[in-house]
Specification:
Chain lengths: 372, 372
């Protein structure tokens, strides 16, 4: 089948896996994650990126959309993993002389379409609550000038919405619209708390929404009503978010959780085939690469995974589509081909030294915790 | 860690995996599953049981509580798999001269405490909607006479409750109480729709409730409020239900889904450790075998699983308990020991010929579908 497209993640965060669990988003960010991120080095992000990319490959993901910093390290890791990626620099208001925006443009000028065309660069205005209108307008201007897509967090929590309405008298979606963000090709992660008017705006500008079921549940952010979004004609893709808030990067887990929870009130919601599309072709549409990948079709690039069905959990084989969504185990993926190149061969990494990556990731996190 | 205890399943149903998905419980039972079950043979149940037990072993389950028919075939399969099990014959009203009850007693007299003490026999009055009060009273009498525990379905759907109130003017819990069922040691599967009064009754009689998150979501039955049940002092265990409504038998998936969905409103709900207890020691309490198994303690029997942590999804290792609940992949289980005997050795079955089991399961289902 086509490889999975993880349309929202932060691969540089995998060192924080299981570091802080069972707390709310704002507590988690302010008191746990951000203090640790202040001490993160380029090298840490390099090993975290390789670690994440290993985990994604072994669970069948061939492409991901990332937002973080030290993204040149993530791109360096991509040289080894050979994955396809859309990379954005997280842009937040603590940005003297717009140095972060310049860094993001610099990434574009250096790496757009590099590594045999596997790399695309997007702008990453983090969220409404970490930016302001002037900053967003500036980003929108840059986006138009360079024709760069945009990757944002949108209405992830109710608090984000409430604060935004207090601050601007508008929803996050309305703020982004006013600042011209949606006039550019945009991926909006989460979208858990969207009004009907928000959905109309997103639909009008053809913004893709990315569902991150595990992360949203784990941080008590809520659960996106997928059927409502799809019925508005909006392209709905799927993501794992980071392994700090999930706490893994397996799209197969997201597929099963998204489908099961969506059936809460109606078993016909998010059928097996719908949820597989979210995890593949809809991701390609979100990233603007659906002419190249996201499905197995003549003329498309070979981003292909082979799933082993010769195991008890796939026996008997009554319905392949149901089987993939409801019965597949995370590591049933046996072979992964990206851009025509075999990168995972009978459950062995072709290009990655996985023992070295794990060793250095552990070492990096030990050092990070000791660092003042 | 201690092996998982799957406290509610129907191992004889695994041939129906992925046969009918994305429909509601009553439609699924009446129009899909029951017509197929009418054609099921003893041999089919034998292969289905072995298939299920293989899948459970490879995902770390060492004990299960089963309700189905042709249970002598499931017990025969247990001779090969060496799993620990509590077996009950599903008892429903189409039971001329109480032949089914007699069959259940027969199982008890033949197999109770057999296979080195790994087998216990329970009575299986299926549910309120498939029995009546006289039948339930008779089963309660038998339970007392032989000191046999009881395994039931309870308030799985809202329709079950509504119909019961129409029929008896009582909730299913009230009906079971009136018929004396709860005076015996009882496992109640599902319990999705329980009133405060129901919970008080279950608490008073020390009835264990078994949460089956995937099955309940998939059939749109609802989602059990685990925290509410636990706060009433009720022992809450975990089950997969059958692979026909799940569609797999991995307790690791249930652990992750139960914990994530319970956090919907509060991230402190069902923390990593709470959910691991549900899947182990609480299951042992439900089955009345917590003096023998369910935790790793001196003097207990060796029902032990070894989980491989040397992989990207467990790196770095910040918190073992969180890691087990949120980051473990279904097939990270490398070794399984049941009753002191190694049954799964570095991901290879010691006693089971898995290729033969899969081949015969496929064949059995092909023949079943062709059968008039």
């Amino acid at each position: 089948m086509p490889g999975f497209i993880n349309a929202h993640t932060h691969v540089g965060m995998s060192l924080f896996r299981n570091y802080s669990d069972d707390v709310e988003l704002m507590d988690w960010l302010n008191n746990k994650i951000w203090p640790l991120e202040d001490k993160l080095t380029e090298k840490d992000v390099y090993w975290a990126s390789l670690l994440s990319q290993s985990e994604m490959i072994m669970t069948g993901t061939t492409t991901f959309a990332d937002m973080y910093y030290y993204e040149d390290q993530t791109i360096k890791a991509l040289e080894k993993s050979k994955m396809r990626a859309q990379i954005s620099r997280g842009l937040t208001l603590e940005d003297e002389n717009y140095l972060k925006i310049k860094e993001n443009i610099d990434l574009y000028q250096k790496y757009e379409n590099s590594q045999d065309g596997r790399i695309n660069i997007a702008l990453g205005p983090h969220a409404v609550y970490t930016t302001d209108k002037n900053y967003l307008k500036e980003i929108s201007k840059v986006s138009k000038k360079y024709n760069m897509p945009i990757h944002i967090h949108l209405s992830e929590t109710k608090i984000e919405n409430d604060d935004c309405i207090k601050r601007f008298g508008q929803s996050p979606t309305e703020v982004f619209e006013e600042c011209g963000i949606f006039e550019n090709k945009t991926i909006a992660a989460h979208g858990v708390h969207l009004s009907d008017r928000d959905l109309e705006i997103l639909s009008k500008y053809d913004v893709s929404v990315v569902h991150n079921p595990s992360s949203n549940l784990k941080l008590s952010s809520g659960f996106l009503d997928c059927t409502r979004v799809i019925n508005k004609g909006i392209n709905l893709a799927m993501g794992t978010d980071s392994s700090a808030s999930n706490n893994n990067l397996s799209m197969l887990k997201e597929i099963s959780i998204a489908s099961l929870v969506s059936k809460y009130k109606d078993p016909k919601n998010l059928r097996a085939y719908d949820v597989l599309k979210m995890a593949t072709i809809n991701g390609a549409k979100a990233l603007g690469i659906d002419k190249e990948t996201g499905s197995l079709e003549e003329g498309k690039l070979a981003d292909i995974i082979l799933i082993d069905l010769n195991n008890p959990n796939h026996t008997p084989q009554n319905n392949l589509i149901s089987s993939l969504s409801y019965s597949t185990f995370d590591t049933d993926v046996s072979y992964v081909i990206i851009n025509g190149e075999l990168v995972y061969d009978n459950k062995k990494f072709v290009n990655l030294d996985i023992e070295e990556i794990m060793k250095n990731s552990k070492l990096a996190f030990d050092n990070l915790r000791k660092r003042k």
